[in-house]
Amino acid sequence: MGAAGTHLAQLASEGGLGAIPWNLLVWAVPGAVAGALVGTRLQGKVSEQAARRFFAGLFLLIGVTFLMAFTVFAGRFA
Questions:
Q1: Both 74 and 38 in a single domain?
Q2: How many secondary structure helices (H) and strands (E) does the chain include?
Q3: Which of 25, 29, 32, 52 shows a CA-CA span of 20 to 30 A to 40?
Q4: Which pLDDT tens digit goes with each residue over 10-22?
């Protein structure tokens, strides 16, 4: 919270309220809160190995998606 607040204050002081990425905050804040709530409920109920496999697959999927986005589909984002 401290780092996020400091970063937002710095953005606002340097570029005004228009410099703050509100479109990102609209999704990030509720996602972080929901993730924290779900994570505390599942703690100890899901085996460590299952959690490791899930997150390994998730990060692999994210990595492949970024790799494809910046190589194969790079022309669409230019």
A1: no
A2: 3, 0
A3: 25
A4: 888 888 888 888 8
Which domain does 10 fall in, by range?
1-45
- Number of folded domains that form the chain: 2
CA distance 9 to 2: 10
Cβ atoms of residues 24 and 32 within 8 Å: no
What the block records as the tokens of 40 is: 């505390």
Q: How far apart are CA 9 and CA 7, in angstroms?
A: 5
SS3 72: coil
pTM flag (> 0.85) = no
**Predicted confidence (pLDDT) per residue in 43-68, tens digit:** 989 999 999 999 999 999 999 999 99
Same domain, 27 and 56: no
Calpha distance 12→6 (Å, rounded):
10
